[in-house]
Amino acid sequence: MQGIACALAAGESVKGTTSPNPPVGAAILSQEGAIIGCGGTSPVGGAHAEINALTHAQGATHNATAIVTLEPCNHTGKTPPCSHTLVAAGIKRVIYLSADPNPVAQGGAEYLRNHGVEVIFLDVDVVTLLPWLCSLKTGRASITLKWARTLDGFLAAVDGTSKWITGAVAREYVHEDRSHRDAIVIGTGTALVDNPRLTARRKNGSEYAHQPMRVVVGRRALPAHYHLVRDSDRVLFFDEYATALESLWELGMRDILVEGGAQLISSVLSTGEYDFIQDYSAPILLGAGKSFINQPLAQTMADCIRLEKLQTVLLGQDVMSLLRHERL
Fold first, then answer.
1. In the chain, how long is the greatest CA-to-CA distance?
2. CA 254 – CA 267 distance, rounded (Å)
3. How far apart (Å, rounded) are the C-alpha atoms in residues 100 and 123?
């Protein structure tokens, strides 16, 4: 259905710019089923997705249908309740894809039904919303671990070289994904070896409009000429990973990507305090090298960590798998 695709795309387009609010998308369909409005959540303090979609529809909303990726809110914060605004706009049907578990905002579907609006709940796993929904459950930012590996499980060759495991298409995908994150976290080991920028860049080298906060965890100092030291705008340094998480939460960040290296990823895996994994696999073999996990996580198959595969994306010759930690 085009309306659902429009709402999903609108939510994806604003992901990374809305925290601590969710990146919601909405579409308005005329009585004939044509898309007449589409919008995503504005940055904090701005209009919610439904309001932006209604505005885009330019008043032609009587007896229209609204499709929203998250249940319309039912509380007054910095903006009025979206459920009330939809009723006032003459919307006759609301289709929403995810229930709102936030006790402060939930109840929009009930309000709509009580005011004569037909409400349909599709109960879809909206990937764009998963980090925000996860942060509500855990009380901390959602943590996604990301690595790129060879088919036989190595992130670097015996001599330490790692550029490039994945191809150009996968690397472009990584940069676009960065542009939708609140923060990227690496350890000082990776920072010292790779001297990364950690910015989100297009194929032509230009930067995306939204840049994530860049975070370095560890006690080792970086040389003064390194990118993250020279370009210190939106770069935070922490001695401890736990302190970094607390500070990022206080800054309103709800979606964190941990890019490594092996020591930091292994440490986070061993604690179990993570929510999703992005596994980039390339069809190359090394036979030996540096693994992305440097310690046992289970002694028997009965104790192994079970993951739920949510999404698989073919990127040229490489494959990105998005997995959810089973405890969620």
1. 68
2. 21
3. 11
Average pLDDT score over residue span 53-82 = 91
Angle between helices 2-14 and 49-56 (to 10 degrees): 120
Q: Which domains does the chain have, with CATH numbers?
A: 2-127 (3.40.140.10), 140-325 (3.40.430.10)
Q: 């001695």: which residue's tokens?
A: 239
Q: Which residues contact 33 (CB under 8 A, 6 or more apart)?
A: 3
Centroid of chain to Cα 82: 23
Q: Which of 230, 236, 193 is nearest to 212 (CA)?
A: 236
* 240: Cβ contacts below 8 Å, ≥ 6 apart: 217
Output the pTM of the full model: 0.88
Q: What is the pLDDT of residues 102-111, one digit of tens each?
A: 877 778 999 9
Question: What amino acid positions are annotated as catalytic residues?
Answer: 50
Q: For 166-204, what is each residue's pLDDT tens digit?
A: 999 999 999 999 999 999 999 999 899 889 999 999 999
Report whether 25 contacts 12 (CB < 8 A): yes
